[in-house]
Design a protein that fits this description.
This protein has 248 residues and is α/β, with parallel strands linked by helices. The chain is built from 9 helices and 7 strands. A 7-stranded mixed β-sheet has the order 3-2-1-4-5-7-6, with helices on both faces. α1 packs across α9 and α8 runs antiparallel to α9. The N and C termini lie far apart (58 Å). It holds the Pfam family Methyltransf_25.
Length: 248
């Protein structure tokens, strides 16, 4: 295999993977329930990647109109192919998730709001929400009393991580209130890392130097996760505009 640019190596690693980050269909179902998303909702999957959650949204809400947006052309192409069986009610395009039009009853963002910042992303999406619209997103969360292994994982992957209180504070700073919160630990991460391990193994024999470096980086990340899998978590938050009452 001829040598690749770092961006090409990254996209080679992620091609043919079902997910670009941790997640599980059951967690999305929980968020839809907490959000009380109506059957005929208009939904946006912001930072949709290759469309794993877009497909789940389309299945969970078969009468909904669903938009999905991502900045990476390769992921957009993959998402379009995966969602083609749902026809015109699912629309996928390449663009900036910070600039949504709406109005949406639900904006779903799995593991991507950190590109904008929690507060900044929620503020940017406020004008794209329909009346009574809701945002559901996942964000890295440091659990109480973290081990050295958990700290080591996040020091590389997301040094600006906070605990749940810190996430709530960022939600409040955007002028939103929390409707529900959950933690994604274990299965959601296995859904991401186990297929990636198989992908790394398949690419390793013919990898160019740049691709090999990308595979090494991914393997090191997986190893850090395996050192503390019960402590590595995303907080799954369902939030809506409007601050909570003082005694909530």
């Amino acid at each position: 295999m001829s040598d690749l640019t770092p961006d090409e190596a990254f996209l080679t690693l992620y091609s043919d993977l079902a997910r670009e980050g941790p997640g599980a269909a059951a967690d999305l179902g929980w968020a839809l329930s907490v959000a009380a998303t109506p059957a005929e909702a208009r939904i946006c999957d912001a930072g949709c990647g290759s469309g794993a959650d877009t497909v789940t949204l389309a299945k969970e809400r078969p009468r909904a109109k669903i938009d999905a947006v991502d900045k990476t052309a390769q992921f957009v192409d993959a998402a379009r192919k995966r969602t083609a069986p749902f026809g015109a009610r699912v629309r996928v395009w390449q663009g900036d998730m910070a600039q949504l039009d709406g109005p949406y009853d639900l904006i779903w963002c799995a593991g991507a709001i950190y590109f904008l910042g929690v507060t900044q992303g929620l503020q940017a999406w406020r004008s794209a929400l329909a009346p009574n619209g809701v945002v559901a997103f996942s964000e890295p969360c440091m659990l109480p009393r973290p081990s050295d292994a958990a700290r080591a994982f996040w020091s590389v992957e997301y040094p600006q991580i906070t605990d749940m209180a810190g996430i709530r504070a960022r939600v409040a700073a955007a002028g939103y209130r929390v409707l529900g919160e959950n933690l994604q630990i274990g299965a959601a991460w296995e859904n991401y890392y186990l297929p990636m391990e198989r992908r790394i193994a398949s690419l390793r024999p013919d990898a160019s130097s740049t691709l090999a470096a990308a595979l090494d980086t991914a393997e090191a990340e997986i190893a850090r996760w395996r050192a503390a899998p019960s402590e590595i978590a995303y907080a799954l938050m369902v939030v809506a505009p409007g601050l909570s009452a003082p005694d909530d």
